Amino acid sequence: MLRRRLLKTAGSFGALSVTAPRAPLAASGFYVPAEEAPHTQTFMQWPVHRRVYPDPVFLEMTQRAIADIANTIAAFEPVTMLAAKEYHRRARKMLSDDVTLWDIPTEDLWCRDAGPIFVIDGAGSLAIRHIRFNGWGRKQVHRRDAQIAQRVAQRLGLELLPSGLVGEAGGVEQDGHGLLMAHASSWVNDNRNPGLSRAKIEDRLLTAYGARRMIWSEGVWGEDITDYHIDSLARFTGPRQVLINLPERPDPIDPFHAAAIQTHDRLVAEGLDVEVITEPERPRVRTPDFVASYANYYVCNGAVIAAQFGDDRTDAIARNALARHYPGREIILLNVDPLGEMGGGIHCATQQMPAP
Fold this sequence. Notes:
four-stranded mixed beta sheet
């Protein structure tokens, strides 16, 4: 099952809106630090479920891609892979000795969405913010994945803080300095938060992330399983700094292209420093549903782990942009095409635990 499979219903997109800043949280309030802040470790999930991966060959390819990501990150910081005990023996054959396996059952690999969202307070205490995962609006099996945040909290002895929201962390991007951006299609949606207004959802997101202000984009409803997660389009690289992944020659009738351009233009209009990474023109995989996003990278201690797609020109553009935005970190590009075929990327597969 592809995460970005085209559906029969038409997409929708529109302009961004920006909320007025709200008062900062108290010094003891919990917040999500910037991804580039120091980590204690990275969490990931082992993909196994045959309803999600009916083709055993593709399942093995996907597992190897996940193992490559985990092994690469493990050279820079500890990695914990979540998987039911019955899959540990097979996973261990692909994983380096630097990757720890925990007996927490999974179905799919998208730890950004189903995994724990770690928050920290002014005293350095950690907790887990619970945004309930429901399979991107009940589109996919998620009995085990929906329990991952609770099980990680229990194992670590951390408090699980309810948010009052259903959704996924891949659907909101934070700079760690009080600003959020998101697509409304991933949140203001009856398949996640029926009966909640945009204002109420916004208030709960700001509280969950310990932020003060939010930039909304309408996004695209119903064209892919995530309802257009922001983390495959635009990423904060610092306060008021954004990298955005755009096609060099946008298709005006493609709802994703139209929504992406509107997001870019509004971010610029809001005074943010926005740099464009050009999408690959000649990736190895040419299927219509393939997501070739350089923006879907992961920042770990000392490195940035990003995708390369086999287009030498745009791969180099992405590498150079990441090097400028993350000076002093090693830039590592991996072939993770199976994730792109499922509509995601490296950021979608990872979740950081900040250092206290």
